[in-house]
Specification:
By secondary structure, this protein is α/β, with parallel strands linked by helices. The protein contains 13 helices and twelve strands. This is Glycosyltransferase involved in cell wall bisynthesis.
Length: 338
């Protein structure tokens, strides 16, 4: 499948459309790190479309938008729920989307995950996702592998899929010593420039299998630190407690369970030598693209869109946990010998 642009996707479903509703909200305050802002940046900065970001509480606006003007497109992201409270809001959201479609609006749906990361309510998610795929005029993915996976799961024809690459993240120049110094000062750490640092950055969530990486790191022969950085995702407090205990038992584990301000994000990438991903499942990964932006050595599972990165010189893929451990050993020893 040939890669295209969002502009071309929108033109293919409604060449007359001028307004694009985007769900969820675009974080305009995080222009260097927000996936949605970076995805739509070119369109936001042009006058081709009016990009209007809609919150989950303002879905009724979709209905009125389609009633008033038929030439509107809804671009939806992350159609899922994690608990009973968010489940209770799904009938309202699905009803608004359905009425938007009935009243003449067009729908583009971006597929980020094969199924919800926490793997709760899987049958209900599958029902809702197949319904959404049927309503959608176009299904947006970030790689060819996702087409092969999701066309089967959603029972959707491959002709409905459009490949638009993941947006690039801008990288801020700096160096390892500066990054470490700033982290040590702000977060009361004792990192040393002479020790290799492994980074796992982003929401602390069970599907990333962070605890497995932490146990592997504590057992490695080569000195190193594992930086686990990011807020604890809702429903993962037990994982946080587990990681906290591991960090208390072993100084190699550096746990910073907080949201990181945008201007502080580069510190962690400059301070790190290796970025590790240990997803249980994944289609596309924003974390991977952030690591690529900083030209980091990347160790990741051979799955989803990551499988297509195998020929990149800085990317090393594994299939099992022993493969992850072997790659860490090889690259940490190589760093030590430099």
């Amino acid at each position: 499948m040939k890669a295209t642009s969002l502009d071309e996707v929108y033109a293919s479903v409604n060449a007359e459309a001028k307004t694009i509703y985007v769900v969820p909200l675009i974080r305009y305050s995080h222009k260097k790190s927000d996936y949605l802002y970076l995805l739509y940046q070119d369109l936001i900065e042009s006058d081709r479309y009016q990009i209007e970001s809609i919150s989950i509480f303002n879905h009724v606006k979709l209905i009125f938008g389609a009633l008033i003007n038929k030439n509107v497109i809804l671009h939806y992201h992350w159609l899922e729920f994690q608990d009973f409270k968010s489940l209770a809001g799904m009938p309202w959201k699905m009803a608004c989307i359905f009425l938007f479609k009935i009243f003449g609006g067009n729908i583009v749906w971006t597929l980020h995950n094969e199924f919800p990361h926490d793997q709760k309510y899987l049958e209900l998610h599958q029902f809702l996702h197949r319904r959404m795929a049927k309503w959608a005029d176009a299904l947006h993915v970030h790689c060819q592998k996702a087409v092969d996976i999701m066309s089967h799961r959603l029972r959707a024809p491959k002709s409905k899929f459009h490949l638009v690459p993941h947006p690039d993240f801008p990288a801020m120049p700096s160096d390892k010593k500066t990054g470490i110094a700033k982290i040590n000062e702000k977060f009361d750490c004792t990192l040393s420039p002479d020790i290799s640092n492994i980074l796992m950055f982003g929401n602390i969530s069970r599907y990333k299998q962070i605890e497995e990486v932490a146990r592997i790191v504590t057992d490695l022969d080569t000195p190193c630190n594992l930086l686990i950085v990011g807020p604890v995702k809702k429903g993962n407090q037990d994982l946080y407690e587990e990681l906290k205990e591991l960090a208390e038992q072993n100084k190699r584990i550096v746990l910073i369970p907080h949201f990181i301000d945008e201007e502080e994000v580069p510190w962690f990438y400059h301070a790190s030598d290796i970025c590790v991903f240990n997803y249980r499942e994944i289609l596309s990964s924003g974390g991977y693209h952030m690591a690529q932006a900083y030209d980091k050595l990347i160790i990741a599972p051979d799955m989803g869109c990551l499988s297509e990165e195998v020929h990149h010189p800085n990317v090393h893929l594994f299939h099992r946990q022993d493969g992850l451990k072997a790659l860490l050993n090889v690259h940490l020893k190589a760093l030590q010998e430099q």
